[in-house]
Amino acid sequence: MLYDVLRHVRPLVLNSARVVETSLRFDDLTVGMRAVLEVLAEQGPLTVPVIGDRLDLARQGIQRHVNDLIDRGLAESRPNPAHRRSVLISTTPAGAALFARIRAGELARLGTMAAECGIEEITTALRVLAALHRDIREEAGRS
Amino acid sequence: MLYDVLRHVRPLVLNSARVVETSLRFDDLTVGMRAVLEVLAEQGPLTVPVIGDRLDLARQGIQRHVNDLIDRGLAESRPNPAHRRSVLISTTPAGAALFARIRAGELARLGTMAAECGIEEITTALRVLAALHRDIREEAGRS
DNA sequence: TCAGTCATGACAACAATGATGTCATGCCGA
DNA sequence: TCGGCATGACATCATTGTTGTCATGACTGA
Lengths: 143, 143
Prior knowledge:
Two copies of one chain form a homodimer.
Chain A: H1 2-25, H2 31-43, H3 48-55, H4 59-71, E1 75-80, E2 83-91, H5 93-110, H6 119-141
Antiparallel strand pairs in A: 1-2
Helix pairs in contact in A: 2-4, 3-4
Chain B binds a DNA duplex through helix 1, helix 4 and strand 2.
């Protein structure tokens, strides 16, 4: 049963990435940059390794996305009072505004989907996914 | 709410791919080859374009995985009675046996996960994911 | 204080994979 | 029969996750 859940999520991620990507292309963004922008917009200034933890990705790849965002003026680095080398990354006003617009568009599209599912069903799905994610994440960490 | 579902599935896919990949590395397989092998093992002989439809991927990429599988003796092509050029791809006995072993291992690992979720909750999650997948797939197809 | 260890940024190389384009050829419907 | 389409085969490219390296700052324990 969980096996069928996992079988569904891969094409789901693929297709949602495609949908998101076509919208993003207009703004010259990639899905990776969008993911980093989301974390920055929601969780305030963070260091690159911390962003990697949030997204379950290595810091090296995050660094690329952050550099790309800075090049586009969507993110900026500020001094980290707790660490001289490890700077804090945050969105610029332009980056925050862009991500707000992107998310609004995505929410509008999502609003029409899975219409037959009630809020309690979606909540249940979210809980199952969170539990599965937690345990698979732990299993992945063992390697 | 659906937004939070989508936010969970991406790292979930990433981490499950990592877990699966470490097991697969032992057999010199990639996740792409494993995905094709799964479709072949479950849905009998199929043409390359049909496999692509099942996985929501372009036939060109599938062709690479199929060629790799054939190189390893895990899949083979047989004449297609309905089409002279478009051959049918099927698993070899070795391929079927390998995938059965792989899946057994994966199921064993999955058995310990999301233990606090009941069968009806997982069923609900599956239904929500299927509905979301269906609508996002349609949205992706429009581009 | 000092030495060893770790975290971090910066940079590089690589592999997997999905996207895209092309071309020749077989298939199918008008 | 002819034109459009599907298919295999081949090629190229971009994204992205992985891995390794190195210098430097931070931290910990003796």
